[in-house]
Amino acid sequence: MNCCERFALFGRGSDARGSVLFLILIAVMLFAALSYAMTRSSATGPADRTAEDAAAIKSSQILQHATTVEQAVMRMRIGGATHEQISFHTPAWGHINYRHTPEAPDAYKIFHPGGGAVSWSAPPQEANDGSEWQITGAFEVSNVGSTCGGADCAELVMILPNITKAICDVINERIGILGGQENVSLTAVGTSFTGSFTAADVIGNEGIAPGTTTGCYEGSGIADNAPADTYHFFHVILPR
């Protein structure tokens, strides 16, 4: 074998070794990228998707229950019941905060088989801090029904206090609300409806657009308003 042939063989060997090293380098890079992707997926992917799915399911349950109550109220109104006659009293609450004086007939009770025939339902588990549903006639919702700033224009509203921010965000996203900062007093939430209306506060005069009948507001933390970093669902079940 002459010198030229030996040089050619040496060159071919160098090219081969270079190709092998290049392939090894590519394999290492691909392995590193795959490892990073798997780590990132296990750290944020499935868990985040699970949390998002749970928030979506619970927000649907909240909206469905509020809508079911609203439809029963509408049927009762069509049947001739006045605003004041509609009752939300049922032993399922575990208290008598919604009992009228004198007590309303069964035909006017939303949660009675002979009335609205709505099954009483507690909030979805872990949707909020355990607070029960609130039904109040103490909120006026701006541009819903008549707007007068007084008790005559207060709506009948369902409130679910202290829901999670994730559920609040899902609800507002579904109905197109981009922001929800409101100065809404929680003292009105504690006013259970027993046939009379008051005018404790207004929804829809700040972060939530006037005319919005469903949504979630964030507490402002000002004075006696809802505390900051708390979130509260509302749904108008009877505009006035």
SSE blueprint and pairings:
Layout: H1 3-78, E1 134-141, E2 155-163, H2 165-175, H3 186-189, E3 201-203, E4 214-218, E5 231-238
Parallel strand pairs: 1-3
Antiparallel strand pairs: 1-2, 2-5, 4-5
What does this molecule look like?
With 240 residues, this protein is of the alpha+beta class. It has one domain (53-238). The protein is 38% helix and 14% strand. It has 3 helices and 5 strands, in the order αββααβββ. The longest helix has 76 residues, at 3-78. The model is unreliable at 3-11 (pLDDT under 50).
Whole-Å distance between the termini? Answer: 106 Å
The geometry reads as globular
Largest sheet: 5 strands, mixed
The secondary structure category is alpha+beta
Low-confidence stretches: 3-11
Please give the share of residues in helix: 25-40%
* DSSP strand count: 5
What count of domains describes the coordinates?
1
Order of helices and strands: HEEHHEEE
Using only C-alpha atoms, the radius of gyration works out to: 30 Å
**Strand order across the largest sheet:** 3-1-2-5-4
* Overall residue-averaged pLDDT value: 83
Give the amount of beta strand, in percent. 5-15%
Q: Count the helices. How many?
A: 3
Compact description:
38% of the residues lie in helices and 14% in strands.
Features:
single chain, 240 residues, alpha+beta, five-stranded mixed sheet, 5 strands, 14% strand, globular, disordered N terminus
